[in-house]
Amino acid sequence: xxxxxxxxxxxIENFIEMVRADSTSWNPMEPKWFRGEPRSLTPLLxxxxxxxxxxxxxxxxxxxxxxxSGYHDVVPDVERxxxxxxxxxxxxxxxxxxxxxxxxxxxxxxxxxENEKEPVVWMLNPLEMNRLSTPSDPAMLPDPNRIRxxxxxxxDPDPDPPPWFPRVRPRAATNPAFxxxxxxxxxxxxxxxxxxxxxxxxxxxxxxxQRACFTIHGKRxxxxxxxxxxxxxxxxxxxxxxxxxxxxxxxxxGVTDSVAFPDLDGLAKELKxxxxx
Length: 277
Known about the structure:
Elements: H1 12-22, E1 33-38, H2 47-50, H3 57-67, H4 81-90, E2 97-101, H5 104-111, E3 119-124, H6 126-133, H7 176-185, E4 196-198, H8 205-209, E5 212-216, H9 224-227, E6 233-237, H10 243-252, H11 257-260, H12 264-276
Antiparallel strand pairs: 1-3, 2-5, 3-6, 4-5
């Protein structure tokens, strides 16, 4: 079923009003995630699948892990495959991760970056999406007296035995985040069908600055808009004609390139935009 069209967003105030209205039925104590991207025929699809590189997922990750220490002062331990996946994504390597942020205005900032594209912001209810991904997990069932938590992508509740000691029983209940992440390194031999929302380890300053979070795809290689119902995923189309005025207001509110990208590249981009005006 196609998603209902939303009114065109023309200002920051307009955007915040829509976000508030659309999330009224969501638990106000639980996070909302945002993603800005240009309108496309493949919305909410990780770069790995959008660019037809799924076949090369493992070689990409292995080569990045083997060479990254020559280009970056601090890299994760070689066995921390979760942290390597986070670092690879923020370095620009195509992965099965989809970038999100906890900040609505940061998501809006990213949506407005490509001048030739029509900007779109998505809002996700990540914990409710995880409940769909783990329907048998009692910890994900709604309980007003319980704080729901995100799965730890590095935690394997039922590790495989050593090669010399065969498994004598079926694998117990699994951690869907760990299984989807494991699928990235083991050519989809593991993983569930649906994506899972996870918080990353901040292995790069940009992750912290952007209040980054991720969804990690499983075996179904479709955009989130095809996998998640309208009740948990909202879309906001931004009026391209208002791009400059909204960016100016975002700058006034402290959301700029050097904030989202706290390095020399971010500072240079911000200064160029300022003086080109």
